[in-house]
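EF-hand domain-containing protein: structure, please.
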Amino acid sequence: MNGPKAKTMSKAQFHHLFLVLFKIYDLQIIQRILALITRNTKKVINPTAWVKLFSVFMSNKLEQKIKFTFQIYNATNSGYLNREAVTLGVSKFFAGDDEDEVNELRADMLEVIFKKFDTDRDGAISYEEYAVVVKKNPMLLEFLGQCFPNVDGMTLVSAQENLKALVSIKLGKMNKLDSTLDDVQNTRFSNIYHDLIKQMAKTTQFSEIEVQSILLVYHKFVLANGPKAKTMTKKQFNNLFLVLFKIYDLQIIERILSLITSDLNKDVLPVAWVKLFSVFMANKLEQKMKFTFQIYNAANTGYLTRDVVTFAVEKFFTGEDEDEVNELRSDMLEVLFKKFDTDRDGAISYEEYAAVVTKEPMLLEFLGQCFPNVDGMTVIAYCTNILSKINFPKSSIDDK
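Here you go.
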C-alpha cells in the first residue's frame, strides 16, 4: 500500500488500524502504545514493533497485560499514577451540556477510583496497588481507558491456514469447507445445515459462506457429544463463555441464552448459535445496546431499578473490609444514577441508557461484561472466519 519500494508501515497506517479496526479512539493512548513498542515515535513502524504489539494483545498472561496497561497510563514513567493523571483519564469518560453535572460526575468517579486503588492513601496509585486490584477484578484492567482491541477487532486473529482455506472456497478451488472432516462428514454437514444456511444468510448480516463457517464450529461441538448427537449442550455453551469468551457471570450467560433460545431447559439449537454471533459480530451500536439492555433487564420491565443496579454493582467490589466495600458500592451506585437516570425518577429506561451509550460507547456494558473481550478473539481463529470482516487484497481474489 506504501509502494513497491516501501519497507515499513507508516504512523498514519498504525493510527488508522487502531481507530478503524481496533476501535481505540484515544490518540494519547495510541501514541503511548507506539512509544512502548518502538524507540522512536516519530519514525515508521518496523516489523519488530509490530510483532511486539501482537505479543501483548494475544497474551494469555494477565500479569503481562497489567504491566503493559500501567505503562500506558503512566505516561511520565514515574512508577505511579498521581491525582492529575487519573483526573485526566476520568475527564474523558463524561461529557455533556451541563458542565456542573459533568464536573460532579468526574469528581465522584475520581473518589471511587482512589478509594479502590490507592490502598495506602498516599494520593497516588502505585503499580503494586493497581496490580493487586486487577488480579482480583480483571475487568478493572483498563480502568482509565481502552488499551486492547474489543471483540470487533477479532478478525486480526484469523488463522492463516483457515484464511487460505476460505479464500480457496471463494475462488471455487475447494469443494469442502473443512479439511479436518472427511468426505462423509462434510456431506453430512451439508445435508443437515443446507436449508438453515440459506435461511440465516437471508435473515442475518452474514453471507452463506460465513453462516457455514459459524455452523461448522457448532457442528464440531455436536460431534463431541457422540455420533448420534444433534445439538450443543447447555454445559458446552456455558463452558464456551467461561473458558473462551472470559465471561464469568453465570447470570449474564443465562440471560444471553434466554435471549437467543425459547427454552432454557433444552440444548442450544443451531439457530440460536447463529443468532448469538449475529449480535457479537454486529457493526451497529444500536443492536448491541438493545441486546445488552435486555440482558440487564432480567425482569423485562423496560427499565433498570435501583435494586437491579445495586445487585450488579455488588459484584464489582469485593474485599475484607466490609465497610470500605459497601462505601465503594454506594459511591458507584450514585455515580451511575447521576449519569444514566437523567429524569431522576429512580430508574434507568432504555431511552436514557441508549442516549448515554450513543454518546459514550465505552459505557455499553456498564453493569457487567456481555460481549467477548480481546481474549475471546480466538473464537475467530477457531473457525468462524467472517469474510465480511476481512479485507482481502484485491489481487488475491478479484483479479483471479
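Notes: Confidence is low (pLDDT under 50) at residues 151-174, 375-400.
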